[in-house]
Amino acid sequence: MPLDEFDRAIIAVLQEDARMPVAQVAERVSLSATPVSRRIKRLEEEGIITGYQPVLDPRRLGLELDAYVLINLDAHSDANIERFEQAILDSPYVIACHAVTGDMDYLVHVVARDVEHLSQITLKSLLRIPGVRDVKSIIVLETVKAPRTLPLD
Amino acid sequence: MPLDEFDRAIIAVLQEDARMPVAQVAERVSLSATPVSRRIKRLEEEGIITGYQPVLDPRRLGLELDAYVLINLDAHSDANIERFEQAILDSPYVIACHAVTGDMDYLVHVVARDVEHLSQITLKSLLRIPGVRDVKSIIVLETVKAPRTLPLD
DNA sequence: TATGAAATAATATAGTT
DNA sequence: AACTATATTATTTCATA
C-alpha cells in the first residue's frame, strides 16, 4: 500500500512530536481525529512506524563523547564475522554498526562517558574481539545536525 | 538533579516503547502511576527527555540507501564553515553531520532512494558546496545493529 | 519530599451515518 | 470521513509515610 499525502503529513507531524494528541495531529493535517487514529494504527500494522522512542540528551545521561570507529577484520570467514557481530550486539556502548564499502569493513558508532572510557571501549573491548585487525577512531567534536528524522518527499 | 534508579528504569522502559501507558510503565518499575507520571514530566522539564519520535522503516519510505560521507574543506575560514553548515542544514537527505577529528573535517550521514540518487546528492549537492575540497563516500551494505537507544548503566 | 488511591480531566477508539 | 458515544488513559487532589 503506497502512502498518500495524509499519511506523509501525519508521519511528518509525529516526527516533530510522537506524543501529540491525535486531535491536534488531525487539526494539523486538516482531518478529524478518527481517520488520523485509524491511519496511525494502519501505519503501525504495516510496519512503516515500527515503534516510538524518547529523544534523550546523552550528556545529561553522562555520555559526553561520541565516536565513529572504522574496523577491519583480518579474515572474512563466517566464524570471524559471526563472532565480531555478536560482540558488537553485546556491547551496550555500541549504538550502531554497519558493514560498509571502502577499505574498512565496519563503521561502528560508539558513545562513551569520557576520553578514558572511549579509549577503554576501543582498546579493551573492540580491538580485542578475535579477528579484528585494525581500528581507526573518528571522534565527534561537534554535532552540526542530528534531527533524527527522515525526509518524506 | 542526578537520576535515581526509578528514573533510569522509567527511561529504559520508554526506550522500548515511548507510548506505553503510564500504568503499565508503573507496573514494570514497581511504582504506581502517579509518581511515574510526575517523574516523566520532570525528566521532560529538565531536558533529559527532549521529545518523542516514531521509529520509521526507511525502506518503506522509499529510502533504500544509507551512506556516510567524509568531507574536507579547502579553507577553514568562518565564512566557509558557516556556508557549509548552512548547506548541510538545508539538505533534507543529510540526516546527521558532525565535525570530527582525523584527516577529514566532517562526517555526514546521508539517506537516499537509490544509487543514482545518492550519487546526485554527493556530486551535485555536497561536492558543489563552496569550500568543499574532498569527499569520500562510505556506503552502508548492511546494518548489524541500530537500536536507537542509549546505555543507561 | 515522595508515594498510593481515588476522582476528575483528557484523550483515543468504536459504532453509526 | 465525520459525528457521537464509549472506553481508555493521564493527571490532579488528597491523605499518608
Keywords:
homodimer; 153 residues; 29% strand; Arc Repressor Mutant, subunit A; Alpha-Beta Plaits; DNA-binding; alpha+beta; 5 strands; four-stranded antiparallel beta sheet; 2 domains; sequence-specific DNA binding (chains A, B)
Describe this structure in words.
Two copies of one chain form a homodimer. Chain A is an alpha+beta fold and 153 residues long. Chain A folds into two domains: 5-45, Arc Repressor Mutant, subunit A; 58-139, Alpha-Beta Plaits (2-Layer Sandwich). In chain A, 37% of the residues lie in helices and 29% in strands. The first copy, chain A, has helices at 5-16, 22-28, 33-45, 78-90, 115-126; strands at residues 49-56, 65-73, 94-100, 106-112, 132-145. A four-stranded antiparallel β-sheet of chain A has the order 3-4-2-5. In chain A, helix 2 (22-28) packs across helix 3. Chain A binds a DNA duplex (17 and 17 nucleotides) through helix 3. Chains A, B: Keywords: DNA-binding, Transcription, Transcription regulation. Chains A, B: One of its GO terms (biological process) is regulation of DNA-templated transcription. Chains A, B: Residues 3-64 form the HTH asnC-type domain. Chains A, B: It comes from Novosphingobium aureum.
Q: Helix- and strand-based class of chain A?
A: alpha+beta
* Spatial strand sequence of the major β-sheet of chain A: 3-4-2-5
Roughly what fraction of the amino acids of chain A lie in strands?
25-35%
**Can you count the beta strands of chain A?**
5
SSE topology string of chain A: HHHEEHEEHE
